[in-house]
Amino acid sequence: MNQLKKRWLSGVMAVVLLLVNLLSPVTGYADESMRFNGNNIWQDGSEILFDQERHYLFRWMDTSGQTAFCIDPGNHMGFDVRVMGGHYKITDDEVPYIASEEDFKLLSLICDWYDKNGAKFATNGQYAAAQGAVWAVIAGEWDQVESYMTKINRHVKGTGSAWTSLKDWIENAYQGAKGLPEWCSFNQDDAPAQTMTLEDGVYTIHLDFSEKPEIAEVRWKLPDGWMQSISGKTLTLSYNGASMPTVLIEGDVPTSLKKIKKNSQSLTIYKPERTRDQAMIGAGLDTENYIYINIGGVTIPDRPMLDEPEPLKAGN
Question: What is the SS3 string spanning the chain?
Answer without folding.
Answer: CHHHHCCCCCCCCCCCEEEECCCCCCEEEEEEEEEEEEEECCCCCCEEECCEEECCCEEEEECCCCEECECCCCCCCCCEEEEEEEEEECCCCCCCCCCCHHHHHHHHHHHHHHHHCCHHHCCHHHHHHHHHHHHHHHCCCHHHHHHHHHHHHCCCCCHHHHHHHHHHHHHHHHCCCCCCCCCCECCCCCCCEEEEEEECCEEEEEEECCCCHHHHHCEEECCCCEEEEEECCEEEEEECCCCCCCEEEEEECCHHHCEECCCCCEEEEEEECCCCCCCEEEEECCEECEEEEEEEEEECCCCCCCCCCCCCCCCC
